[in-house]
Specification:
The chain has about 120 residues and is an alpha/beta fold. The chain is built from 5 helices and 5 strands; from the N terminus they run βαβαβαβαβα. Helix 2 (about 35-45) packs parallel to helix 3.
Length: about 120
């Protein structure tokens, strides 16, 4: 049986590398540092779980985050589980994305192994 694929998009980071934890939960892991590369992977591979950061971008004119491009692709596949990491200081901006899309799990910073393990257990249900 093939392992399920988890795509981790680490644009800014600021939290531990969870690759070992992802593997412990049975995932094959791909880590990308750019949204553009992550979107290319989604066109080629069947991804089961995405872990990505909400990074508020006040300089964007038509969007608030690069996460919106990802949401547009993920909405086409209801089987993809989406864990989003966010800073509480930007939660009011993040709320705008919650109105567009229901994430499988949300983790507020600081992100640690306990929170990530709980999120992975929830998306596995």
């Amino acid at each position: 049986m093939d392992r399920k694929l988890l795509l981790s998009i680490v644009e800014l980071g600021g939290y531990p590398d969870f690759r070992d934890l992802y593997r412990q939960h049975g995932y094959e892991v791909i880590v990308e540092s750019s949204m553009r590369k992550a979107l290319a992977i989604l066109k080629k591979k069947k991804v089961h779980v995405i872990v990505a950061e909400f990074n508020y971008q006040h300089t964007f004119r038509d969007r608030i985050s690069s996460l919106e491009s990802l949401i547009a692709v993920v909405q086409r596949d209801p089987d993809i589980r989406f864990i989003v990491l966010y800073e509480t200081e930007y939660e009011n901006h993040f709320e705008k994305l919650r109105e567009q899309y229901q994430f499988s799990e949300e983790i507020a910073f600081p992100v640690n192994e306990v929170k990530m393990r709980a999120a992975l257990e929830q998306v596995a249900r």
